[in-house]
Write a structure and sequence with these properties.
Layout: H1 3-8, E1 20-27, E2 36-43, E3 53-57, E4 64-66, E5 72-77, E6 82-90, E7 97-108, E8 110-115, E9 121-126, E10 131-136, E11 148-151, E12 167-172, E13 178-183, E14 188-195, E15 200-210, E16 217-222, E17 228-233, E18 238-245, E19 250-258, E20 269-275, E21 281-287, E22 291-297, E23 304-310, E24 317-322, E25 328-333, E26 338-344, E27 351-359, E28 363-368, H2 376-384
Antiparallel strand pairs: 1-2, 1-28, 2-3, 4-5, 5-6, 6-7, 8-9, 9-10, 10-11, 12-13, 13-14, 14-15, 16-17, 17-18, 18-19, 20-21, 21-22, 22-23, 24-25, 25-26, 26-27
Enzyme class: hydrolase
Family: Belongs to the cycloisomerase 2 family.
Keywords: Carbohydrate metabolism, Glucose metabolism, Hydrolase
Amino acid sequence: MTKTALIILTAVITMLNAETIPFYIGTYTSNTKSRGIYRSELDLQTGEMSEPQLAAETLNPSFVAVNHNGSALYAVSKTDSEGRVNAFNIVESTGELEIIDSQSSKGVSPCYVSIDPSGSNLLIANYSSGSITVLPIGKDARVEPPACSIAHEGKSENAKRQEAPHAHSIITSPDGRYVFAADLGIDKIMVYKLDKDAGKLTPAGDLFAKLRPGSGPRHMAFHPNGKFFYVINELNSTITAFGYDYKTAQLSEIETITTLPRSFSGTNLTAQICVHPSGKYLYGSNRGHDSIAAYQINSGNGTLSLIEIETDGINEPRNFNIEPNGNFLVCANQHAGSLITFRIDFETGKLEKTPHKINVPSPVCVDFVIKEKITSQSETYLNRTGF
């Protein structure tokens, strides 16, 4: 496995022999009791979480991203005016966050931040303005002024939610050459070439993936083998699987399946999607049905088979994340003001709720502090699949 692959697969990277792993929790502070970003530690044997501590006071840090070596954290500040992106140094001895820089997101209501595999650029999705922005990362993890900003155009069939573009997430291809932006308002996954040295995006020809009208693509995830790409669609409660051609960045739809049981007829909005570090399973969350749907991934063709739809203890699961060993899932219950953990059965993919819970006001994002060593369980599986 190459050095580049190690960086790309941050989801399967962790400290060997670690007993706990720190994680940070983004929240909404407006009209809530939250004061900013919180920190906890997850016990990797039991799923217990330590008492959360306020790591930094900041306005509406609704999405956070820890850098690849665990030394810095970046957070959007989601507001109805021009948003901000804040950079924090992670104090190694305490886990507290020290703000070191802040830049405009060049858009309204930034809702997503990710880091390219080289660690050179921040990628931002601005929801209300329907735009995406690239901010280069400078010395000492500081954020430089925006190098590129692109506004999407169009609308789709849902008059309330799709009257204009609404960029909801932005990630890179595993090799970092391309950028994918999910726009809920126009039912498209936009594709761009990334010049990582200049921090510039250019449209990848006429490449984009069109979702069914009214889908509302929200979040995306690549399979660890780089061959499959998954999108969770907020407005019609579905997941779309694509094949991915890394040479051309072409996305080819494989299938679209529901996240809900047939018996459910209420209102629902999906939220988060994660592929298990082993590549064997995929999980997607439902707000309304209040559940996490678990699927088995066919390693040959990328199709999904429903395993279960878990509801135990789940309340408005706006976000969740899987720790790098793949043994536990941490779920952020926004309306309940709590985080709970599930043990993941590596053989079946099923979720088993643990008795552990912590309280944090309006939690909406979970990201782990990761160190660059690979767990043997996930590495073994990926080697078997030929990555």
